[in-house]
Amino acid sequence: MCRWLAYTGEPLQPSTLILDAKHSVVAMSLNSPLGAEPVNGDGFGFGWYPSDAGAGATPSTFRSIEPAWNDENLREISRAVRSPLFFTHVRAAGGPPIQQTNCHPFRYENWLFMHNGVISHFGLTKRELTFAVDPSLYTHIRGTTDSEVLFHLALTLGLADDPIKAVGDAIRMVEAAGHKAGVAFPMQGTVAVSDGATLWAFRYSSQGQSRTLFHSADIPTLREMYPDVERLSTFGDHAQVVVSEPLNDLPGAFLEVPESTVAVLDPSGYHHEAFLAA
């Protein structure tokens, strides 16, 4: 499938995580030990909120069909900007064509969304699910992926009012359509969504065997655990990372998000909530 990373906290040069970490997202694009596919070279995307923008700001995006490890523009942009909240995603295409509009993250107004996983046998449910998108949002679907349809279903079902409920309702709709079409396990994956202030990271699959997902422990605790690791001084006290695979080998630095769980991260810290648990 894919690999992704999301950051929230004090404004940071994104290249710190996208390029420079020991097991950075670009490194994952070449070698993903915990991924369904070891190589994720079918394009990438980078979305970020400006460091000087207020609440409700529209994020910027850069998406390309180039492999992430081979794109000079990604290196230039990720080193040139600073952002308090950004997403990046490397893609392993599972069926939909390799084109820019199929690269994550997807954007609508102040929202960013990305997904690692699949709506199983999407061709059997694509018409029903796509037509369930609100007509006012339908024209914003530019690509052909199941992930973009899932995003617009969540927008249709009230993402702006209650993100956890809206993503849950969208997944339940996917499962209902899939079961009606004879698909045993319709939904698989991890999802990140943000309004620019809060980051929600979901781990869920119909089969209970979701893609891996981790988030960092709080920085002050890590500094106490590893006082000699100079790299930790790069991050502010509120820095938090959610990622498909840990960025380093430091024991305790990354915590696994359990199955059927949403991790909610904002300036106050993080907490977990049960999500679509049986």
From TrEMBL:
Keyword Transferase belongs to the record: yes
CDD domains the record matches: YafJ
Gene3D superfamilies recorded: Glutamine Phosphoribosylpyrophosphate, subunit 1, domain 1
Superkingdom, natural source: Bacteria
Record field: transmembrane: none
Domain Glutamine amidotransferase type-2, first and last residues per copy: 2-278
Pfam family, one: GATase_4
Keyword tags: Glutamine amidotransferase, Kinase, Transferase
GO terms for MF: kinase activity
PANTHER family, per database record: GLUTAMINE AMIDOTRANSFERASE DUG3-RELATED (PTHR43187:SF1)
Protein name per UniProt: Class II glutamine amidotransferase
Organism: Microbacterium pumilum
